[in-house]
Design goal:
Layout (H helix, E strand, L loop, with lengths): L2 E6 L8 H10 L3 E6 L9 H8 L3 E2 L12 H8 L2 E7 L1 H9 L5 H8 L3 E6 L3 H4 L2 H12 L3 E2 L3 E4 L5 E5 L3 H12 L9 E6 L4 E4 L2 E3 L6 H12 L4 E6 L11 E4 L3 H11 L5 E4 L6 E3 L16 E3 L3 H4 L6 E8 L3 H11 L4 E6 L7 E8 L4 E8 H11 L3
Parallel strand pairs: 1-2, 1-4, 2-3, 4-5, 5-6, 9-12, 9-14, 12-13, 14-17, 17-18
Antiparallel strand pairs: 7-8, 10-11, 15-16, 18-19, 19-20
Helix pairs in contact: 1-2, 1-8, 3-5, 4-7, 9-13
Length: about 375
C-alpha cells in the first residue's frame, strides 16, 4: 500500500483525477488530495473527498485544517507527490520557487519523488517558457509524464491531453518501486498465442492467456528497463499502454518480428506460446466431413533460429511430465541463459508454480505465487 498525495490544478481535465483516485483506491493505496482554487472550478471537493475517503485540502489557512503547518504534515505523510493535471502556471511557480498557496508551498517542502502530469493546450505546452521550466525541473530531479496527442477540449488537436489513467498509475508505481535491476537495459518480450489458418474461416491455436508475458512486461517496467517492446499474439487481456506494443498473428509473423528487432535489444524474454504446428491451408472453406484429416507441419523454432545471437535469452517450457529433464534439454539445445519451466496446470490462472533453470544448471522454484510476483522474483534472481 502506498500513500499518494495528489495535487489537482485548474484544468478541464481535472475531472479525470477522479478516475485516477479510484484506480489508486482499487489497488489499496491511500490518497489525500490538495485542490487549488482554480481546480475547484472544474471539480468539487465533495467529489474528491467521497472518492478518496479523506479530507480534501484547499487552502493554506483553512480553519478546518488539522494543523497550521498542513503543507509540512502532508509532505511527511506521503510517499510521492503527483500533480495531475499539472497546469503551466503550477509548473512555472515551482520552477521559480514561488509558494503562494497550499499546493505550491507543499511542493517546496516535499523532499521525496514528485511527478508532474502536464495537461494543457498544445500551443501552451510547446511554448518555450513552459518547455524551459520543465527542463529546469527535470534537471532538479523532478519527474514528468508527457501528455498524449489527440483531440483537446478547446477543439484543436495536438499534444496536451491527459494520459490514460493506467499509464499514470503504473508510472507512479514504477517510481515507488525501489529496485532497478533492468536499468540501462532494452528488453524485448513476446507473449500471447499465435494462430494458424486451416481455411479462410477456421484456425488452430492454443490456450495461452498471455498473463505470464504481461507480468514480465509490468515487472520489467517497474525494474526501470530503458525500453520495452512487447510482441504479442492474441491474449485474454489488453496489452499495457505504457510500453511499445506490436501485434502479430502467425508463428511466422512472430519469428519475423523477433528477427527484425532483436539486434536493438539486450534481453529477450520469450514468453509467447507459438503454435508448434500449422495445417496445410485450403483457399476455400473446407466442406463438413466427419472423416476429414488435417495434414500438419512443424513451425520454425524461433529460439533455435536465434541461438547464436548475442542477446541475453530467457525461454519458457510448458511440460506435463519430466518437467526438469525436458527443460534442461531445451535450455541446452536453444543455448539459453535461463529457462522457466511452467506446468500446464498454470494455463489461464492468475497464480502458478515455476522452476527457473540457469545455463549452469542452478535452479529456483517459485511456488503458488501471482504471476506478477513470479516475474519480479525471476528478474531479481537472474544474473545479467
Amino acid at each position: 500500500m502506498s500513500k499518494i498525495l495528489l495535487g489537482i490544478t485548474g484544468c478541464i481535465s481535472a475531472y479525470k483525477a477522479a478516475y485516477l483516485i479510484r484506480e489508486f483506491k482499487k489497488n489499496n493505496d491511500e490518497v489525500k488530495v490538495i485542490l487549488t482554487e482554480n481546480g475547484s472550478k472544474f471539480i468539487t471537493p465533495l467529489t474528491l473527498r467521497t472518492l478518496s475517503e479523506n479530507k480534501v485540502y484547499t487552502s493554506l489557512f483553512d480553519d478546518d485544517n488539522e494543523l497550521s503547518t498542513e503543507h509540512i504534515s502532508l509532505s511527511r505523510w506521503a510517499d510521492i507527490l503527483v500533480i495531475a493535471p499539472a497546469s503551466a502556471n503550477m509548473i512555472g511557480k515551482f520552477a521559480a520557487g514561488i509558494a503562494d498557496d497550499l499546493l505550491s508551498t507543499t511542493l517546496l517542502s516535499f523532499d521525496k519523488k514528485i511527478l508532474f502530469v502536464p495537461t494543457m493546450n498544445k500551443t501552451m505546452y510547446s511554448n518555450p517558457v513552459v518547455l524551459e521550466n520543465i527542463l529546469k525541473l527535470k534537471k532538479r530531479g523532478v519527474y514528468f509524464l508527457e501528455p498524449e496527442e489527440g483531440f483537446l477540449a478547446c477543439g484543436e488537436e495536438g499534444k496536451g491531453r491527459f494520459p490514460e489513467i493506467s499509464i499514470i498509475y503504473h508510472n507512479v508505481k514504477k517510481l515507488l518501486f525501489e529496485k532497478e535491476k533492468l536499468k540501462g537495459k532494452r528488453v524485448l518480450i513476446t507473449g500471447g498465442r499465435t494462430v494458424e489458418s486451416i481455411d479462410p474461416v477456421r484456425i488452430i491455436t492454443n490456450l495461452s492467456s498471455g498473463k505470464m508475458a504481461l507480468a514480465f512486461v509490468k515487472a520489467s517496467f517497474y525494474n526501470k528497463a530503458d525500453r520495452i517492446l512487447f510482441l504479442h499474439g492474441d491474449m485474454d487481456e489488453k496489452p499495457f499502454a505504457f510500453v511499445e506494443n506490436f501485434k502479430v498473428k502467425t508463428s511466422e509473423d512472430m519469428k519475423n518480428a523477433v528477427l527484425k528487432h532483436i539486434d536493438d535489444f539486450d534481453v529477450l524474454i520469450m514468453a509467447s506460446a507459438v503454435t508448434d504446428f500449422k495445417p496445410e491451408y485450403s483457399n476455400e472453406k473446407i466442406k463438413k466431413n466427419k472423416n476429414l484429416i488435417l495434414r500438419l507441419y512443424e513451425t520454425d523454432d524461433i529460439l533455435k533460429s536465434i541461438k547464436d545471437k548475442k542477446i541475453f535469452k530467457i525461454g519458457f517450457a510448458l511440460e506435463s511430465k519430466d518437467e526438469i529433464q525436458n527443460g534442461i534439454k531445451k535450455l541446452k539445445e536453444k543455448r539459453l541463459d535461463y529457462i522457466i519451466v511452467n506446468d500446464q496446470k498454470n494455463l489461464n490462472k492468475d497464480k502458478g508454480t515455476v522452476t527457473i533453470i540457469s545455463k549452469d544448471l542452478k535452479t529456483k522454484t517459485i511456488e503458488n505465487k501471482e504471476k506478477f510476483e513470479i516475474a519480479l522474483q525471476v528478474i531479481e534472481w537472474i544474473k545479467l
